[in-house]
Structures are given as C-alpha cells and as structure tokens.
Amino acid sequence: MGGFSGIIEGFQVAYSWEGILFVALGVLIGTAIGIMPGLGPITAIAVMIPITYGMNPTFALVMMAGVYYGSIFGSSTSSILINTPGAASTVATTFDGYPMAQRGEAGKALAIAAIASFVGGTVAAIFLMLFAPVLAGLAVSFGPAEYFALMLLGMTAIASLSDGSSIRAFISAVLGFMAVTIGIDAQTGTNRFTFGNVNLLEGVDFLVIALGLFAMAEVTYLIINRRDRSFEKLSNIGSIRLSKKDLKEISGPMGRHSILGFLIGILPGAGATIASFMSYVSEKRISKNPEEFGKGSAKGLAAPETSTNAASTGSFVPLLSLGIPGSGTTAVLLGAFLVLGVQPGPLLVQEEPALFWGIIASMYLGNIILIILNLPLIPYIAKLLKIPRPLLISLVLTLCMMGVYAISFSTFDLYLLLLFGIVGFVMKSLKIPAAPFILAFVLGDLLEENFRMALTISRGDWMVFFGNPVVVGLLLLAALSVILPNLNKFKKKTKRKDLDESM
C-alpha cells in the first residue's frame, strides 16, 4: 500500500499547477536547445543547474527531467531537415529522416518522429513506474564480460549498415576504430595517435565527428554541386498528415523498440545513442524490404526515434534506484541531484516518495505537452527548408561551428570539424557509408575497455567469456547475426546459379 500511496503522491506533485508549469517550461527549453546542433541535453542540464539552485528540489528536478527528454525530442528536427544531428543520439535519425526531406516529405518525417518519440517516451514511463526497483538489480548485475558481449553483438550491425558493399562498410568501421583510439589510453596512460599534439590527448569528441561526417560533408557536397537541382525538392515540405497505411507501417517498430530502447537505457553506460543504432539495425534485419532503409523508410525513421526516447527514460532507472548514471546526461543530472541536496539511491523511494514518483509521473505529462506543442508547429519548423541555398549553407556552417566550439571552447576542434567534413565528403563520393564509422566510434571504446577490464579482473582467464551463460548467449547471438545473413546470401546465389544453368 505504501508504494501505491507514493505513486498517488507523485501524481499529485506532477499535476499540481506548479508541477505542470515547471514540466512545460522544462520541455520547452529542452526542445529549443535540442534543435541547436552540438548543444544537446548535457549542455541544457548543465546550464539549468545554477538557475535551479535554491528552488524546491522536487520541482527543480521535474523541470530538469523535462529539459532532458525535451532536448532529445527536439534534436531530431535538425537531423531530418538539414542532416545535422542535434545530439549524438539522433545520428541514426538522419539515415532515413533526411532522405525523406530530400524527397519532399519533411512534414511527414517530422510527424513520424514526433509520434514515435511520444510513444517511446510514454511506454518507457509506464515501464519505469512498474519495474524500476526490479530492473535496477538487473542492470547492476551486468559486469565487464557481459558488456563486452553486448557491444560485440552491436558491432555485428556493421554489415547491415552498408548500402550493399560489405567491404566499404568494414573500411568505414576501421576508420571509426582508428578515430576512437586517439588520445590517452585510460588503463596504461600511453599516448595513442596524438602525434605529439596536446590537443589530441583527450581524444576526438563524438559530436565533432558526427557533425563533420554528416552536416559538413553535406554542406561541402552542396557547395561543389551548386547546379544540382535535386536540392529544390527540400523546399517542398509536404503534408504532415499520416495515412492509415503510414500509421500501420510504423506501429510495429514503435511497439518493438519502445521495449528494446527502454531495456538498453537501463544499462549503465549504454545510453540512447547505442539504443538508436541497435534499433535501426535490428529493424532493418527483420524488414521484408531492407533495401528501402537509408533511402527514406518510415520504419527506418520510427525505430531509432522510438528507441532514443525510450532509452532516455530508461536511464532514470539506475539513476533513481541505485544512484548510478545510465548515460553522460544522467551523470550531469546526478550532479544536479547532489547540488539540490538529494541523494538518489535505494533509499530515495522511501525517504522522498513525492520526489521519486513525482519525476516519473511528470514524464507522462511532459510527453503529452511535447506532442501537443510539436505537431502544430511542424509546418512552421519545416519552413527552414525554404531558406535559399546560400543562406541555409551559411546557417548550417554557423550552427556546426557554434556547437563544436561550445563543447570545449577550442579552435582546434573547429579544424577537426573541417577535417572530418572533408573525410565525410570523400566517403560520400566513394559511396563509403558513414554509419559504420559512427557505430565503430560509439562502441569501439566500450568494447576495448570492457574486454581489457574483464581479463584484468579474471587475471587473464579466458573462461570469463565462456563460463557465464549470459555472455555465451550474447556471443552466440553475435555469431548468428554474422553467419545467418551470409548464409542466406549464399543460398540466393546458389539458386540463381542453378536457374541460370537450367535455362
């Protein structure tokens, strides 16, 4: 009964006039910041910490939670419209969102993103309310060996992210692995690929690479191909209405990836970025028409958008129940908790039930406010595409440079942005997909770190990977993910050969 009364108390807090006001304010600020490339949820929450100092901790944290998932919600806008990810977690949104905008369906793409985000966030909030204490124990049971196997399973997605050529996909992935090793090795303190430059000691920031490979590469392409008339299709926003066929098409991905995204989100260190990639790849693998992905598929847009928002909500499980941040953003949010005098952990639900359940209850309201605000504004937001090409190029360049400079206030990062823009343009010209590069960069560091940590803890005993049923199961899934697609390709080639011989 105590748990039920705590839930009721949480809803009373969230749906009081102060709760509604701070939730609405939080999602508005978050959405506005999310649209700006490079700023993202971490910057948004960091800015809010001094502003909320001295406020009622419950309402302050309700507002910051709104800023978090509001910025995730809003960051898909620039990904779809100008191929410029607003945050790391929306890189996968560009794969099919931007092609839809190029096809003259920007309104439809933004509507799908808004609905998918709403469904993912709402379903995850329900799971968060029902299973938070139980799932916290599951999340903390994952050790380095389990994380290594999980990251390896994610790496098998590289072949699925290619446009037909596995060789090009693996070239892209190797480049991503090379990029992620730049900097000081965390375990040995050795400088790797820094070439004596102190600016590279901390490595290359993810957003520098993401904005370079996607936004800057696209800008370079537009500048060089000034006479390409296909860009004019972008100014055709199209209708924001979704037909019954569209809703039926995206309902499956939204249902599946609400669950998958939430489960990945509860794992400390996994986060929304990994969830979005895994959802995109898994949806492409089970699709009857995988060749449509990367060319403007509604499923390819709905899957990562749903998963991203579900994972963002799921990351509150280890934060609230264990006091362990589930992502970089929740690590900053943990600092906000401590500044406000709140200690998240197993005792929070007993000592501060109104705060614990109030944050969770506010997520329902926040997602409703987001969908109400964003759907009517889509035609106005999409008018960004009507800006003349020279002005739009200038705007993208300015936003990218502002976003990158805001990360570390380093002019060296601006040079890196330009470098990766050139690399992205060359890759695009050679038809080398950028997605495997990003996936390898995201998972490579976690893969190496957990592999070495598992062997260190076991003192070099390789049975740490083969004596645990969870690890063995994940490794088998990784092996099947590589073998089965190639086996199917081999069967198809054999059938074609037999048909040709019979004719």
UniProtKB/TrEMBL annotation:
It comes from Shouchella hunanensis. Residues 20-439 form the DUF112 domain. The chain crosses the membrane at residues 20-39, 45-69, 109-132, 138-159, 166-184, 204-224, 259-281, 322-342, 354-375, 387-407, 414-442, 462-487. This is Tripartite tricarboxylate transporter permease. Coiled coil: none annotated. It comes from the Bacteria. Pfam families: TctA. InterPro entries: DUF112_TM. Keywords: Membrane, Transmembrane, Transmembrane helix.
